[in-house]
Specification:
The protein has 17 helices and 13 strands. It is an alpha/beta fold and 390 residues long. Helix 3 packs parallel to helix 4, helix 8 packs across helix 14 and helix 12 (304-312) packs across helix 15 (357-369).
């Protein structure tokens, strides 16, 4: 009788234990696919933090590329090797590797970063029950490296046409690009600008430049279309200034040769991990957001450095393109010019060196504005969309 009673009680307990187990919150997995460099692309880590806040366990999938800085972060990383590191063959092979990886690895949310990963992610979406989030950091077919190559440009436009309709949540960096996607493909995109988080942590102090000189700072990719040749040439006409260039890219060595006759008036730092970048920004006197008019991607650009400068209290000199001009004027922390001709750049900078009174007010305006312009405010619509999707 005693043993029968114990057996009955054990059965009574079983449903209670089963119910308790069933109420445990399921941890979902998000796989973030990118070609970007993890050590320098802060947006990727901020996005992973937002996904984690929404209940996802995040993992990065990226390529192996010579020259990438080592990544020291809290998220696990899988790397995909290819025989090529650039050219159409790289993109073909990398997207095939993405597709095969996703096909044989379980994930609840596929996160495609930029169009150059969307083909592989979209193909996997067709065969899996995973949701697809597409984060477009630029309007890729109109980027300077692609816009002048009709065959390559049309190939990426075809990829957009096929795979953007498969996207469950679309995200991009400014309203004009969101409107292009809406008009072309009838797909609504959330606009999440790449603002810093409310509190930015940095790891160590660095010396950005000669603090006795007026420091002009460029930070970003050292690629075509960034008006960097014109900026270096302008330094011949700026006697009391020093230009610091932070970043790497396709024209880095060409730019280094162009800057060589200027000696220490142009400092080329190369790549800097994102957790050290704020010190360079905060030590400068003026930042630049200058672009050549080389397609819609540049014309509607809203560069990351504008937001970094705002949070560091750094006044900006920008080009008179709609998004750049609008952002600088909205927050009253700089000026814009109509041309990136070296003499126009030099004229604007020399005026600020000779008459620095506006700089203090611009710094104060930027530091006030950063209280509202931050990653947490920008990503509130994404968190809502993720909850709705689930």
């Amino acid at each position: 009788m005693h043993y029968c009673k114990k057996i009955i009680l054990s059965f009574k307990r079983f449903p209670i234990q089963k119910q308790a187990l069933s109420t445990q919150k399921k941890i979902k997995k998000a796989t973030i696919i990118t070609t970007s460099e993890l050590a320098t692309d802060h947006r990727l880590h901020k996005l992973a933090g937002t996904l984690q806040q929404a209940g996802y366990e995040c993992e990065f999938v990226c390529r192996i590329k010579n020259g990438h800085l080592p990544y020291h972060g809290k998220y696990p990383v899988r790397t995909l090797n290819t025989l090529w590191q650039r050219s159409p063959l790289f993109y073909l092979m990398y997207n095939l590797r993405i597709f095969l990886h996703l096909l044989f690895h379980k994930t609840d949310l596929i996160v495609s970063i930029d169009l150059d990963t969307l083909v592989g992610c979209g193909m996997a979406k067709l065969l899996k029950s995973s949701k697809l989030l597409f984060d477009s950091h630029e309007y890729f077919p109109e980027s300077p490296e692609i816009s002048a190559k009709p065959l390559i440009k049309n190939t990426w436009l075809l990829a957009q046409k096929i795979f953007i309709p498969l996207v469950d949540i679309g995200v991009t960096v400014c309203q004009p690009i969101a409107e292009i996607f809406q008009k072309k493909y009838g797909k609504s995109f959330l606009v999440i600008r790449n603002a810093p988080q409310k509190q930015t942590q940095t790891s160590k102090q660095v010396n950005a430049a000669d603090n006795s000189k007026f420091t002009i700072l460029y930070q970003g990719a050292v690629n075509e279309g960034r008006a960097l040749r014109e900026l270096v040439q302008a330094m011949h006409q700026i006697e009391r200034g020093q230009l610091v260039i932070i970043g790497d890219g396709d024209i880095f060595e060409e730019l280094r040769a162009l800057a060589a006759p200027l000696g220490n008036k142009v400092i080329m730092r190369g790549k800097v991990p994102f957790n050290e970048l704020n010190y360079y920004t905060s030590q400068a006197d003026l930042g630049v957001a200058l672009l050549n008019n080389m397609g819609l991607n540049n014309y509607y650009a809203l560069p990351n450095r504008l937001f970094d400068a705002l949070h560091a209290g750094l006044p900006m000199l920008g080009i008179n393109f709609p998004e750049i001009k609008g952002f600088i004027e909205e927050h009253s922390f700089g000026i814009t010019i109509d041309s990136v001709a070296p003499e126009e750049i030099a004229k604007a900078i020399n005026k600020l060196i000779d008459q620095p009174e506006p700089l203090k007010q611009w710094r104060n305006n930027a530091l006030k504005a950063k209280l509202n312009v931050n990653w947490e405010n920008e990503t509130a619509p994404l968190l809502k969309a993720l909850k709705t999707m689930n």
